[in-house]
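Exercise: predict the structure of this protein bound to 3-hydroxybutanoyl-coenzyme A.
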Amino acid sequence: DRAEREASFEELIAADQRIEPRDAMPEAYRRTLVRQIAQHAHSEIIGMQPEGAWITRAPSLRRKAILVAKVQDEAGHGMYLYSAAETLGVDRGELLEMLHEGKQKYSSIFNYPTLTWADCGAIGWLVDGAAIMNQVPLCRCSYGPYARAMIRVCKEESFHQRQGFEILWTLMRGTPAQQQMAQDAVDRWWWPALMMFGPHDSGEAASNGHTAQSMAWGIKRFSNDDLRQRFVDMMVQQADRLGVRIPDPDLRWDEERQQHDFGAIDWSEFKAVLAGDGACNAERIAHRRRAHDDGAWVREAALAHARKHEARQQV
Ligand code: 3HC
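Solution:
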């Protein structure tokens, strides 16, 4: 009965076991996963746009081929995640409708413009770097389908980050103008990348967030600030190798903590972007709606084919 089913859920979570689609789960657990997985999937497909804008303008065939592969990967990540969400009883068409109508979010980071080619380097290095930091722990998420989707995503994500690092590496060993372009991109993407980890865990900038409950349920393995701190510590070393400057005058090594202190994040910018006032919010959703409408014939054809195939099976 219900009490027993709830007990088994608690036992599985307490034993750090996986919850599978057919297992009993509290409605709030299911709703939290639908919210997070849907927003994650939306982030992947909206995230195709910033770099997608540079495919026709990549500086070489090699760079174009790499960028096409990366943008295609992001579409695939979206597909794995919409599929994982569907194991919770929602339909991807509904989720996309909610995205189009602003009822579900995508990551704030994708509302920033890609002004130069160097932005493709900064996105790969910083945005995919932050995504990896956040997604590796999700491979151990308590919900089976989400954790398994993350394993493949993380493998592809590390290629994304490495190609971004290599773009900046090349630019930083180029002309002064190329070095300036790389530094300008890092200046514009550094702080928005820190915001990807979500609001602070405590203090005035904390939101009445989901972290405590998500950690109790084994969805989140680390807090937002923990992952952000690891990201900063890792990126400072890589920035030194690249020769780019991190745009934070308060950044300094704390010998005792063995971590970096860093400056205050502008949460008013974060809130403005989430409220729809980012540089590209309207453009991203308009592009998404257009792509959805332009792709309707593909969905209709696939459904017609599936129906014909099913009918043949029944003969
Ligand atoms: N952008 C938009 N919304 C954000 C956000 C961001 N950067 N950070 C937090 N939020 C929202 C949360 O969704 C929540 O709002 P909601 O209740 O309306 O959903 C609110 O701010 C409070 O934040 P919490 O930290 O309490 O919320 P979560 O527990 O959901 O944690 C998260 C936020 C860490 C982003 C978590 O949802 C998560 O780990 N999501 C999965 C990873 C993900 O979505 N990454 C986004 C980028 S994907 C990507 O970069 C693809 C790569 O290939 C480029």
